[in-house]
Amino acid sequence: MSPAIRYDFRSDTVTRPGPQIRAAMATAEVGDDVLGDDPTVNRLEATVCEILGKESALFASSGTQANLIALMSHCARGDE
Q1: What residue stretches are annotated with the Aromatic amino acid beta-eliminating lyase/threonine aldolase domain (predicted)?
Q2: Any idea what DSSP says for residue 62?
Q3: Which of 13, 16, 43, 80 places its Cα 20 to 30 Å from the Cα of 74?
Q4: Is the pLDDT assigned to residue 34 strictly greater than 90?
Q5: Residue 69 vs residues 27, 29, 50, 57, 61: alpha-carbon distances, Å
Q6: Is the Cβ–Cβ distance between 45 and 56 less than 8 Å?
Q7: List of residues 6+ apart from 34 with CB closer than 8 A
Q8: What is the rounded distance in angstroms from the CA atom of residue 59 to the CA atom of residue 29?
Q9: What is the 3-state secondary structure (H, E, C) of the chain?
Q10: For residue 2, what pLDDT band results from cuts at 50, 70 and 90?
């Protein structure tokens, strides 16, 4: 029986990328997702649309960001 593998995802200062991850990052396709130029984000959004049967999708990198997007789509700054 192999020993249990433990992962610590508390912070990027705790878990550091190894050589394979660094190589993947160095050769990754990149672009500006705000301008619609990031092919990875575009593929992710298209895949989610297809899975959920929706017309479009928006990637939010955290729950806090998603909540802020939802609030700001319904309220103006300064609303109570």
Answers
A1: 8-80
A2: S
A3: 43
A4: no
A5: 31, 26, 22, 13, 11
A6: yes
A7: none
A8: 17
A9: CCCCCCCCCCCCCCCCCCHHHHHHHHHCCCCCCCCCCCHHHHHHHHHHHHHHCCCCCCCCCCHHHHHHHHHHHHCCCCCC
A10: low
Tokens 């928006």 identify what position?
58
Please count the other Cβ atoms lying within 10 Å of the Cβ belonging to residue 66.
13
Which of helix, strand or coil describes residue 33? coil
Nearest in space to 44 (alpha carbons), one of 59, 25, 66: 59
Q: Are 59 and 41 in contact (CB under 8 A)?
A: yes
pLDDT at 70: 92
Model-wide pTM > 0.70: no
User: How remote is the C-alpha of 7 from its chain's centroid?
Assistant: 19
How far is it, in rounded angstroms, from Cα 14 to Cα 8? Answer: 7
What does the block give as tokens for 45?
């959004």
